[in-house]
Each structure stands twice: as C-alpha cells, then as structure tokens.
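The authors assume throughout that readers already know how a fold can be written as discrete tokens. A single example would do more here than another paragraph of explanation. An entry of this sort, consisting of the sequence and the corresponding backbone structure tokens, reads as follows:
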Amino acid sequence: MSGRAAASGRETIERIAARAGFEVHWEDANKATHRVKPDTLATLLTALGLPCDTREQAKETLAMLDAERAEPPLPPLVTAECHRATALPVASLNAGATYRIELERGGVIEGRLGTPKGESPLLAPISEPGYHVLELGDQRVRLAVAPPRCYTIADACRDAGGPPEARRTNDDAPRAAAIWGIGAQLYGLRRVGDGGIGDYTALASLARRGAQAGADAMAISPTHAMFSADPGKISPYSPSSRLLLNVAHIDPASVFGADAFAAVLDAHGAEGAAPLREQWAALEALPLIDWRNVVKLRLTVLRALYERFCAHERAGTSAAAPLARDFDAFCAQGGHALEDHARFEAIDAIQRGQHGIGHWRDWPDSLTDPRHPRVQAFAREHRHEVDFHLFLQWLAAKGLKGAQQAAREAGMAIGLVTDLAVGCDGAGSHAWSYRDDMLQRVSVGAPPDLFNQAGQAWGLTTFSPRAMRTQGFSAFIDMLRATFAYGGGLRIDHVLGLQRLWLVPEGASAADGAYLRYPLTDCLRLIALESLRHRAIVIGEDLGTVPDGFRERLARHGLLGIRVLWCERSADRGSFTAPPQWSRTAIATTTTHDLPTVAGWWSGADIAWRDRIGQTAPRADGRDPVALANAERAADRHALWRAFQLAGVAATGVGAPPKDQAPIDEALGFVASTPAPLALYPLEDLLGLTDQPNLPGSIDEHPNWRRRLDAPLDALFEDSALNDRLLALANKRGRAARSSTAPASPATAPSESPDKP
C-alpha cells in the first residue's frame, strides 16, 4: 500500500468503499475473484467526495456514512411505480404519520403511512404517473411515479394506426407487432452538396426512403455535441455534452435557403486559400471524412450565415421576424444548459486558440465554475460569440427535429432512434456545467476479460451515483429529456452501466479499477416515466458479461435488449441459435458499429485488420494466431450456413459460399425471421459493405468514424438491388409478424407489493 492508503488502513477504506457502493471483491470473465487495491479505492472515494487520505479523514467519512445508513434522510426525489406501494428510504417516521401528495396534473391525495413491522414505511399505491410533490410534515420532496413499463413498440404501432399490415393495407393484423428498421451512421451518409459529411437533411431523406420501403424505425449514431474548437475529437461516443447536438451535421441551406448558402460559398476564402465553393466540393469528393477541415469550413460558412441573420433577421424587419422569434424562443426554452454550453464553447475556443489549454480544469480558477461572476462577465463581454453557438444549436435542433418529422410523416411508427453514449469527455461542457454531478479524474471502462486482457479505460466520465441521489437525479433527468426530445426511440449504450460501472483512476492502468454500483431501480423508473412522456421506445445495449437477472429486470420495465447474429451461439459455440429461439424482449440485428459487417465477417476482413494494426497477440505455443483465427472462422462460416439452411433462408444441398461471396441476403433474412419485435438492418449490410464503422482498441490505425457511403442516397435507392433486398426483407418480416405469438408487451402485470432494489 502507498502512504495514503496505509495511513487510513485497508480495513477502514474497504468499509468506506462498501458503504459507498464499490465492489471490493469482483469476479472476472473466468470466474476468478479479485480484491481491489486500497490505493485504487482511496482515489475513487475521493472522486465521490469521500476523502480518506488520512486516518482522521477516513474516520470522519466512515462516521458520516454510518450515520446516513442508521437514519437516512429523505432524499429530494423518491421514485415509485404505478399501482405498487412505495417503500420510503427513511426509518425515523412515526407509524401512521400523515402525508399529502400534490399531483402534477392537479388534485391531491392524502393518507397515512403504512409501517409493516421491521420494514420501511409505505406509501399507498398511486395510479397516476408523473412528477408529483410529497409532503411529510414540514418536508416537501419530489415523487416520480413511473408507469409499470416503458412505451413499447406495440404502443407505437397502435398509436400509428396498428401494426404494419394494418397501416399499409386495410386488413386486420395481429396485435403483436414485428417491425423493421434501418441502422445508419449519420456522419457517413452522402448527398449532393453536403460538403463532405452526412447531415440532418440527408438523414431526413434516408428516413423518407426507408419509410417508403416499409421501415418503421431509423436508428442513428449519437448526435451529441462535440468540440467546435477541437474538431480532431471525432468519436460520437466521446462527446463534449450529452445535452446538446453535434453542429457538424447542420445543412447550411436548410433554414436560410439555397440562395443564401450559395452567396456565402461564392465569397472568397481566407487570403491565399481556395474559394469556399472549391473547398466545399473538394471535401465532398473525398472517400473518407476529413473531420478537421470539414468542421472548420462548415463553421466558417455558418458564421457567415450568422452575421447575415444578425444583420437582417434580428435587425427587426417584419419579414424576418418569425425566424428571430423562433430563435429567441429556442434560447429561452434551452435555459441554463443551453447557455452554459454556448459559454463553454466560446471560452474553450479562446483557451485552446490563445493559450493552448485543452481541459477546463486548467483554465483560470474563475472560469472553471460556470456560476462564477467572471463567467457571467465573460458572457456579457463576448455576447456575440456566445450567441453564435446558440445559433448553431438552434439550427442543429431544427435539422434533427425535421428529420424526425420527415420519418413520421412518411409513415414510420417510431421514426428516429437516437443513441445515448455511456459517458462524456471529462474536458467537455457537460462535465464543466454539471461538475457537482459528475465524477472527476476517473474514467469509465471495462475490466480485463477474454477479449481484452489489459482492460479498457475509455477516457469518459459520467454521473456520480451519490450526487444523483443528493441532487434529486436532476442531471440524469435533464440528459434523458435532451436525448428523448428528437426521436421516437432511444438506444442506451452499455445499459449495464445503470447497475454498475468499472471506474479507473485518471492515469492508472485499466486493470486497476473497481466496480461502482448505481441506483438501478431509480434509473429504470425514471427512464420508463420519460419514455411514456415522450412516447418513445427504449433499447438497452446489453452485450458483454451480463449480471444474473439483469435482462429480466430490463424486460419487466419494458426496455428492449439487443441480440446480434455473431453473439447468438450455443454454449459450446458450435452452432448458431435458430430464429425461433431468439428473444422476444430484444431487438434483432446482424451487427453493431463495433462488430464486423456480414461481408467483413464472412471474408475475415476483421481478422486481417486486427493483424494489420498489431492487435493480434502471439501465442505461447508458437502457432500462428492469424492462421488459427482464420481456421476458426472457416468452421464458423459452415456452422452459420447450416443454421441458414435449417431456418429455410438458404438453399439446402449446397455448400457454404466462398469467402468473397458473403450470403448477405441469407443473414438479413435469418434476422428478419426471428420473433424480435424490431429487426434492425445496418445500412452497411443492406449495401453489402465490408468495412465496419469502428474497430475497438484503435484510434488512427483504422479509419474509425470516417467512412462514407460510396454514392449519394438518391443514387443508392435508384439501384434495383437495394430496393429488391428491402422488399424481400419487408415481406419476410411480415410473415414473422403473422406467425409470432409474442405478447404485446414484455412487462409483467402490476403488483400491489412494494418494489425494492
């Protein structure tokens, strides 16, 4: 042990850690048990605001936690579930104490606490979901009452006019919905005039095209805000903020029209540079996205449009007044979160550009606190610049909302399924503006496992579970609402993090981390409540080592899991799971952004890539690891082809196709035949592409997040091959719906008993 841990003592630190929710002992993928190092626990406890560097600090922290445990205070927010008695997390209330509940929509409920012997006091069941106010004596707290489950696919189909067959024909259709959708990397979409990156206008076009083919959902890569002053940060899963939007996807012509956009492009560029129109066309012609130059040029164009907007629209002319009023209303509705982000962007640009400072922790002290008077003064002094970033968010919001509107108007029951990253960059605006809610100087990651012996540290931070409780989950709710606002569905990346996350101290090895437990029950209830309020489905990415009972809990609350073709295998991995045995409480897909495409898996392109960039570890027995991986893949190809034949999606009596002739239609048809309520087809597989969007464990060695479609969307959908493939999949999915006996909802019937973690 180091000096700091030795000074406090292992036993004391471990007691504090256990009280705080850390798993002092944890089990790895090989079922071996490990004990977290005291130094790691001490560092992580400090990140939670529980210092124990000295014996005196440890003594005070432990006493505080013991007191909280003995007589826990009533938190600022209590979650409950409709039709279930609610156990209050306090013990110091008198038996039969009266309470009063002011319902969100009006009305009052009064009652007396039930106090079963030896248990927590109980509120009687409440039937109305919402954010109510609970009065207990002189205490007033927020009572978030959730529905028994999230808004489901069956709900969405019913609200849209019934299941697909009922909406697209006039025939009676089964109650159980079995719909399909397309998965797309937004940045990779291509349209004529896009300037080198996918934008919200291209997304709207893809949504219309997909809906015309029968799709009911369009799952997209995260649209979270990135760093305008550092366009080299490109991973959509490492955003600056999960509250705002990525301005790189704005179509400059979408609000002000083609003429205004053309006038800006026809202006000369900087001295010595090519005209803007030439730069725009050159970036658009590239096969891969040049993020730095694309973002730089787009911001130049958008800044010119902003100056026109200020000179004309905001100058008070009557013809332009509607746009100015719309912008002002957007800013007012965005509140502190929007204003904070715009201020951060303006400060960050100066700190990076003039001082070379890349993290807000290294700014002058007066600027590290968004509520400091110096930050307020900065906003006044640089109001024009701060407003520019508000302007960008306004345009981004209009673009993404327009894409969702296009999807719904074209007939999609769900429309966009937005993606919520597991964390955010600790140097970004989210961590700056919500610093009391966020973990500092730690990274979210994963422990060593069968696939990564060194473990992983993703360089992301997230909410402190202790702060979530003490702050009434306000930051968590803000994040949910920000992501739900733009679609008919939400995908939660690494949903396992709602139960526990692997945290690594800043600068430490990824293996030197610890699991920290999160308030799963509270999180699931709040997700269900916001899902209902936004009428949006929820999908949880539950791949990896899943704790026992976790998927069942997701299903009970109506959160769909994800099942991927490559992962649906028998216990001995000798065969692939037949379609009828796939889950009815999870979506089905061929692959994800982190896994090989069908063509890439079949050809072994992923194996070749890993070897090319040095991810193939040598074997102790001296055998060639690449040759062994290819031999294993050959056996897997035959096993998968056999599964296709048994499922009736591939011809019998013939052998598996060669490596360069991937059975893409068969793979997509196999997934379409499952009883999953939603089958999702990645655009890469619909187009038969070989390369995957992201190769985990690499940064610049593989072109992660840079691949673009080879042709504009309009040209792709004029190709009969794609249209024929979509038609065949729509027909197969319709047959799956007619043969499905799945229930309308995965949720269990409401119970009158209290729901305890």
In short: The two ends are 34 Å apart (CA to CA).
